[in-house]
Amino acid sequence: MTTVFTIASGKGGTGKTTVTANLGSMLAYHKKRTFILDSDMGMANLGLILGLENMPVTLHEVLAGKADIHEAIYEGPYGVMVIPSGLSLEGFKKSDPEKLTDILKDIVDECDYLIIDAPAGINHDGIVPLAIADEIILVVNPDISSLVDALKTKMLTEMIGGKVKGAIINRIGNVNDTNTRSQIEKMLGVPVLGMIPEDVNVRRASAGRSPVVSKFPTSEASRAFRRISASIIGVD
Ligand code: ADP
Ligand code: MG
What we know:
alpha/beta, 8-stranded mixed sheet, binds adenosine-5'-diphosphate
């Protein structure tokens, strides 16, 4: 059975792409066959932070009907399979997000987990990744605008018949802050799956084109990502 997670937020810059890359890498580390896909077609960052920014075939070409999805899959850290989006605006214009649902049917049975990095904002293109997922994981920062936008995303998800698994609080000062945790759970009405600290190693790893979990495995952020992925797959 495949589980499809979409990583969403509402607000931009909360850490969706970071969570997609690191969670995906950790699930692959645990020998789960994992695909991560960049559905943020306008701001394609997933390939960029994994050193796959110059790939000849991307999701753009697939959504433009010019290539098969299997041609756009590249191996990343720990064997996670990455489907990047293209960086060109021309490619973005030609791609048709409506086709995503059909295209994913071709690969969904080939993996244990498919993780979709969603675009920010609530617009038509952003709905497709929410509708495709079995469960949505919200990535929030501990500030009010991020939380309000995440709440809107949760409501939208439920309006279209989707389910929110929970929220990851990213860029928090203190990962043991149980007050913030319970306040956010109350406000969003979903469980907090984990808290990731503000950690300079996250940006350092991206600059080195790797996820922090493989580049700096002993960092605080990596510890947090390991805890979250272990709890998702139910290992210690
Ligand atoms: P989104 O995909 O939601 O727009 P990104 O994952 O691209 O957000 O993250 C936005 C920026 O914040 C990036 O520069 C990233 O390196 C940085 N960032 C994300 N999470 C952390 C963290 N826990 N600590 C420090 N920097 C972070
Ligand atoms: Mg992003």
